[in-house]
Amino acid sequence: xxxxxxxxxxxxxxxxxxxxxxxxxxxxxxxxxxxxxxxxxxxxxxxxxxxxxxxxxxxxxxxxxxxxxxxxxxxxxxxxxxxxxxxxxxxxxxxxxxxxxxxxxxxxxxxxxxxxxxxxxxxxxxxxxxxxxxxxxxxxxxxxxxxxxxxxxxxxxxxxxxxxxxxxxxxxxxxxxxxxxxxxxxxxxxxxxxxxxxxxxxxxxxxxxxxxxxxxxxxxxxxxxxxxxxxxxxxxxxxxxxxxxxxxxxxxxxxxxxxxxxxxxxxxxxxxxxxxxxxxxxxxxxxxxxxx
Amino acid sequence: xxxxxxxxxxxxxxxxxxxxxxxxxxxxxxxxxxxxxxxxxxxxxxxxxxxxxxxxxxxxxxxxxxxxxxxxxxxxxxxxxxxxxxxxxxxxxxxxxxxxxxxxxxxxxxxxxxxxxxxxxxxxxxxxxxxxxxxxxxxxxxxxxxxxxxxxxxxxxxxxxxxxxxxxxxxxxxxxxxxxxxxxxxxxxxxxxxxxxxxxxxxxxxxxxxxxxxxxxxxxxxxxxxxxxxxxxxxxxxxxxxxxxxxxxxxxxxxxxxxxxxxxxxxxxxxxxxxxxxxxxxxxxxxxxxxxxxxxxxxxxxxxxxxxxxxxxxxxxxxxxxxxxxxxxxxxxxxxxxxxxxxx
Amino acid sequence: xxxxxxxxxxxxxxxxxxxxxxxxxxxxxxxxxxxxxxxxxxxxxxxxxxxxxxxxxxxxxxxxxxxxxxxxxxxxxxxxxxxxxxxxxxxxxxxxxxxxxxxxxxxxxxxxxxxxxxxxxxxxxxxxxxxxxxxxxxxxxxxxxxxxxxxxxxxxxxxxxxxxxxxxxxxxxxxxxxxxxxxxxxxxxxxxxxxxxxxxxxxxxxxxxxxxxxxxxxxxxxxxxxxxxxxxxxx
Lengths: 292, 344, 235
Prior knowledge:
The complex is a heterotrimer of chains A (292), B (344) and C (235).
Chain A (H helix, E strand, L loop, with lengths): L1 H31 L6 H17 L4 H24 L7 H23 L16 E2 L2 E2 L4 H23 L1 H11 L1 H6 L4 H27 L7 H13 L5 H22 L3 H16 L14
Antiparallel strand pairs in A: 1-2
Helix pairs in contact in A: 1-5, 1-8, 1-9, 1-10, 2-3, 2-4, 2-8, 3-8, 5-6, 5-8, 6-8, 9-10, 9-11, 10-11
Chain B lengths: L10 H22 L2 H26 L7 H17 L8 H23 L4 H18 L3 H7 L5 E2 L15 H25 L1 H11 L1 H6 L4 H27 L1 E2 L6 H13 L5 H24 L4 H22 L3 H19 L1
Antiparallel strand pairs in B: 1-2
Helix pairs in contact in B: 1-7, 2-7, 2-8, 2-10, 2-11, 2-12, 3-4, 3-5, 3-10, 4-10, 7-8, 7-10, 8-10, 11-12, 11-13, 12-13
Chain C lengths: L1 E10 L2 E11 L4 E5 L6 H8 L7 E6 L2 E2 L5 H4 L4 E4 L11 H7 L7 H14 L1 H4 L11 H13 L5 E5 L7 H18 L2 E6 L2 H7 L2 E6 L2 E7 H6 L1 H8 L2
Helix pairs in contact in C: 3-6, 7-8
């Protein structure tokens, strides 16, 4: 029982990170109908940016801000330079471009920062907190992780629901042509969408790094988890991304806890395939009557 | 097409002749080149199998796979496991290779059944998970005992037959085996491509609904393409194990899968001939990268990153500049140049 | 005044518009009529920058539109209600309407325009927070027109507003367009297959056939001329 509670708690924490990554995949999918396979690698690069800032002696918070800003800038640039030309091409072209970017970023990280495993400092202690007299598997850093991801989710929700820029972004994603007729600069909205998504991806990279170490391909498996979470949530639904992330986090935590951590990727693979076979539209997508 | 004389009317005969010429060229080349060239030739041959297989799947049938490295791993581990159960080496290498190929074909069939229901980015994501996940199996505690964990399994090297003489080196023999494997794969795939099946592959790629209306069983065609493609990759993986006498998770990373994808993109996404020179580039690029790194007095590790960066750049640039692949781009450049010359 | 001069548009090898010239006078209702495939929709899409012409000019109030992008053209006072109405179903009624004026910086006037639209279309007023996909066909058309009016356009382009609507609803929509033009001086360019109801409110009629203008005439004359009607309009 104690074990189960412990795995559940770590599942929730990890799940929040996968939610953040799933969210960035969902944002990009909604806007451009592209799965950004480079999202994990973009988060890896910005985590290296953060560790460079920390190495210089600056604070974690300063590093966090710079890394997220770097993510936003990289995301926007990637959309403008690499994605814009393939948006109107067959889906395979976009898949190959983002995959090329994934591997290019990993190579750049290796060239600039070297390939060795580095530990990444967490913002808070990773020792579990005490509840009564027993230590539970939930550390201050875990609590920070959960709060940070929730804050980003709420921020995005507010942006999309209650601001005019969010309204324009949604219109550009749903009906780009109609949006243009209404004066929405759709291209800018897509760039902004990629930028915001990459910001969320950067956060995921920073939060996962203390757990998995930092090295050029450290996000490969995390990307698979985030993708599985996004599929679980329906790829189109931000709320689905949150729930999907938690679901995957819990499932993998139980698999890893009871069966060994190396089986987590296999577990994700099995869940992903099963999901795609049984309900490819995801578990949380509203199947709305679109277009009459 | 102009009518060809006699037996040359049959595609299989033409393909066979090309293969014989290539075999002679390979045999001649290995006579004059050193043992490092042998190793490179073996590598190229291995990549040819996997990349030609991937070409059939992605280029001709329109199904993307980011997980062919995982299929190579299945082939390699199958060969290693068969050899472990045959400690005295009774089984000829050819039998081991056939078993490994068959095992990978079965795995490809299973994956193919799932893949036939997936499209575009969904299929890409699922096969990416395959590339990341399958090598982890070897490390998992439940399988580490059988699959050797991070250390992997050793693979026995075959002996060169004695009639070739005592000076005939093992590297030499391995490169011949790999080249023979590649030529067999090329011959079979070329015939498949020009056959009725090749036409149904392309019909499904171009328009699934039209293909279905024309009486083609779309899902079955897609599974068949996956089986053929997996078998080619599996043979390549098994031979990779034989040549390096080791199969280990670190040999089948995501980078391998992406290198294979780079190969088909370089080869023009859909041409078997393109797959051959895509493979040559994919093998030589890391070599050149290492040389470049050394000449810039960087480490060998830096060279390997250069190579990976090159793969990434190739994938991006080719998609942005020549969406029909480098082969297509060169054909187009040729056409432009030729028409300029003609216009004078 | 909107003037189109020798416009040619093609999709690949197929020419959709082959040298169209026409003028849309200010403050009036002009109906562009013609069968399916006559090039009506392409004409509107070219005017608002969704399609690039191969050659020719489109000028509005002396400004050349063909070099502008769609999102800029609405800023010049030209609003386009696309075929099938283009209501964004995933957004609410209120969001759809607000979207129509977001490019305008005058926040107070945006609010004012919103209330005016709700006043003009009471059925929308009661459904502000509902998703647009819950609306009926007629309500969607109201929403699409209302959203276009949010931009306070001088020229309103409509692509087949009667498509899929009951005759009674069509008549209401047409009457409304007539009223907008007469009372507030809005210029209306209406593309319709339903020639009879379009001509009932139009001042001028232009008949397109196979990408060319075949007739330009006063709407009343067009409606009365039996030969023309039979030949081009099928009623």
